[in-house]
Amino acid sequence: MSTAIVVGGGPNGLAAAVTLAAAGVQVTVLEAADEIGGGTRSSEAIVPGLLHDHCSATHPMAVGSQFLNSLGLDRYGLQWRWPEIDCVHPLDGGSAGVLQRSVEDTAAGLGRDGARWQLAFGRPVAQYDALAEDIMGPLLRMPHHPLTLARFGMPTVLPASTLARAFRTAAARALFGGIAAHTFRPLHQPLTCAIGLGIITAGHRHGWAVAAGGSRSISRALAALLTDLGGKIETDTRIDAISQLPPTDITMFDLAPAAVADILGDRLPRRIAKAYRRFRQGPGAFKVDFAVEGGVPWTNADAHRAGTVHLGGDYAEIAAGERDIHAGRMPQRPFVLVGQQYLADPQRSVGNVHPLWTYAHVPNGYTGDATAAIITQIERFAPGFRDRVVGQTVRTTTEMATYNPNYVGGDIMTGAKDIRQLVFGPRITLSPYGVGVPGMYICSAATPPGPGAHGMCGANAAKSALRLLDELG
């Protein structure tokens, strides 16, 4: 029987392990932390029983993941829940851009921009399940649906600023800009449309779901399936050098590229080691969780029903903030994401006290305290918020990197998603998962298709490994 070691027990490492184990490979997952999950961990915090997601929280890409949906994870407790409204982007004065699951309903709320929103997303949403076969893997390969991919792909190469200018209302521009800002890049740069268009299209098709019982339910379900397939998981097992690993046929690394280079040392070809060590990090996330009595007193009525609220003012303010953090400057008004997962999954709350998940976009390695800036942004659109806060907990960029070493400098995207790294991953190659050492692969979110709890980076890398095993007979 072939054997495999997976270093790192985040969703991609677990996805790789499940894929290999399902093919009859004996797999062991080694996780440095005391629990698996990477960015899909959750725990009680602030108030006993109050459940907070540590990082990944809302899952428009995971709920529609063909890989996850092929595994029957509902048998292991994974259930999806949806809020009434996916996302709201409030503006000063009380109005907002409102993202509904339905393209038609979203368009109806955008006034003069409704027809343009329908034109931009109607066809891609209808074709999303076919489209996902191509966009959820390496981009430089023969597509399964070339015409569908070409239609979708042409606008993705544009700067987000170009598409934003196509909308005439402040609400539509801000709604699109806030979602495009998930790329953590200056919105005037090429390809910054890609992640925004992908998230919107996936969300319109499958919704911005949360996992019942917290994002930890995703990793727990994958771990339970792996165990049933004969795989093993060892926590509190940190790997710093290849000499710590036993001989095995396949080694998968759910790690940041520089960590892979450190572990492999001289085993790694020099040009690949150089590329991995020069891998560019993106800006950071400064996270604050709140316990809020009675929920957030939003001025905008739709925000009370939204699973996600984006706080960044109008498009110009969002774009200015993203330029600042990319240049290493802390904005006075950073872009803030707010998660109200309890609206879809009420078991996370304790009575009338609710968990509020937030983080601000900040420069990589930011050493200041963004807590006041986050509270100020919430107060701007929900006056009286701070009076309802009964507790809070902070995770700085440094603490984010300690919590998950893949998040270097607080970079929860596992690398800057600029043109080169979004298309190729850690190095320029047609084989983004291979590390240049026979039988060894990288499967973290640094590889295509990138961040999210969809598991596709791990599944894709494992399929590459299985092809090698088939060739070896």
Task: Report a brief summary of the structure.
With 473 residues, the chain is an alpha/beta fold. It contains 18 helices and 16 strands.
Number of strands: 16
Strand content: 15-25%
User: Pairing-aware structural class of the strands and helices?
Assistant: alpha/beta
Helical percentage: 25-40%
Mean pLDDT: 94
Major β-sheet annotation: 7 strands, mixed
Radius of gyration: 21 Å
Strand order of the largest sheet: 7-6-12-13-14-11-15
How would you describe this protein?
Helix 1 packs parallel to helix 10, helix 1 packs parallel to helix 18 and helix 11 packs antiparallel against helix 12. The relative contact order is 0.20. The mean pLDDT is 94. The strands form 4 sheets. The protein has a 7-stranded mixed beta sheet, sandwiched between helices. With 473 residues, it is of the alpha/beta class. It contains 18 helices and 16 strands. Helices cover 36% and strands 16% of the residues.
Structural descriptors:
globular, five-stranded parallel β-sheet, seven-stranded mixed β-sheet, 16% strand, 473 residues, alpha/beta
Secondary structure layout plus pairing:
Elements: E1 3-7, H1 11-22, E2 26-30, E3 42-44, E4 51-53, H2 66-69, E5 80-81, E6 85-90, E7 96-99, H3 103-108, H4 114-126, H5 128-135, H6 146-156, H7 160-166, H8 170-180, H9 193-206, E8 210-211, H10 216-228, E9 232-234, E10 250-253, H11 257-264, H12 270-277, E11 284-293, E12 306-311, H13 315-326, E13 336-339, E14 353-362, H14 371-381, H15 385-388, E15 389-395, H16 397-403, H17 419-424, E16 440-442, H18 456-472
Parallel strand pairs: 1-2, 1-10, 2-9, 6-12, 10-16
Antiparallel strand pairs: 3-4, 5-8, 6-7, 11-14, 11-15, 12-13, 13-14
Helix pairs in contact: 1-10, 1-18, 4-9, 7-8, 8-9, 8-13, 11-12
